Amino acid sequence: MIGLVMAGGKGTRMNLDDEKLLLEYKKPIILQVVDSLKNSNCFSKIIAITSSNSPKTKKLLQENDIEIFDTPGIGYVEDLNLILKTIDDDVLVTSGDLPLLDKDIIKKIVHHYNPQKIWTSVLVTSKFLTSVGIKSEYFVNFLNQKCHYSGISLVNSTKITSLENLDENYFIIDDKRIAFNLNTKQDYDLLSTT
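Above: the chain's sequence. Below: its structure in token form.
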């Protein structure tokens, strides 16, 4: 299995002077995410997806000998589609802005992988997000519950020809390690209270 870390976004919702993934929580958040994947020992390779939107993040990743795949930075789906076309393996895709991610939750997620499913997204329930003080705009109804994407997916890239009209599967893990992604300054402020 290959671990992909999405690290090429603009982070515009944060409205920061610097790049979002360089924010510190014990260490730069992007390094926390990459180290969580490394320390899980679940992956044959870990690749960070970068773009011209995040040059300092790319530089930090290169300084830490992390393999990168540079994209045009058009958008999340477009950038992800580019790299998935080059991979013939099972893949875990994670957003680079999950500061509480650790090796144990990665192992738990990988354990849910079913290669018969082309795309499986990990969800958290609205009820859980509210209980930890996090807000999210995007939701999906699953098992009669309002749920939100965690930013983590399991993908069988050998079965993908395009990211359009994919049959998406879901499972729920209500855990703050995957619920807590940084989209706003309020999210970052809340992080200091965890």
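The CA atoms of residues 129 and 135 lie 7 Å apart.
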